[in-house]
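Much of what follows relies on a compact textual record of a protein's fold. A record is reproduced here so that you can trace the correspondence yourselves:

. . .
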Amino acid sequence: MISLIVIVGMLASRLNDNSFPFPFDRKTALFTPAEKNFQNLVEQAMGSKYRIINRVKLADIVSIRNGVSKRAGQTASNNAHSKYLDFVICERESMKMLGVIDLVDTQGKGYKVKKDWFVSGALEAAAIPHIRIKVKANYTIDEIRACINSRMLGNKTAAPQVKGRIIPAPLVKARPRATGALSSTAAHAMLSKDTPAMPRQLSANQVAALPH
């Protein structure tokens, strides 16, 4: 009888111990609101010919090259198993991988704000297109479609029809580094030469780029 009490006591203590092998609770949601909303937009932008897969392990889409030493291969493989991509875009019929997308949350908990150089290097070495996109509430389907087509699929698309002066990021050219402040003489010369061009330039400079 005493032995039975001791055994029951040991089992009870193990259940309350932090070393219990299954210390899990169910999560309230599989994806964050930003992930869920962005996936809906990507699916609408890409259409039925493509499939969007969430949270794919880097090790599932890359492999170690032949000729790499066992030690270097094992280290790289371990690192790849600990890295995840937010979205992978594939052709629906063949499941051929076309590229990956990571969301960058600069307003929340700093999710993926800093570029992971191991992930970027691995994807570049494997020739897999990689887009990092900042999280925001007012993306349009046309913006996302244009970004994916130009940055991932290599397709040139026409500018989407949007209200106001919003310009999709893939169509915005970066300002040259050598560009500085204009003198009053240069400014008057530009205005007299091509006055209608100024509003378009100001509009482009005011728009934040979609990819990060």
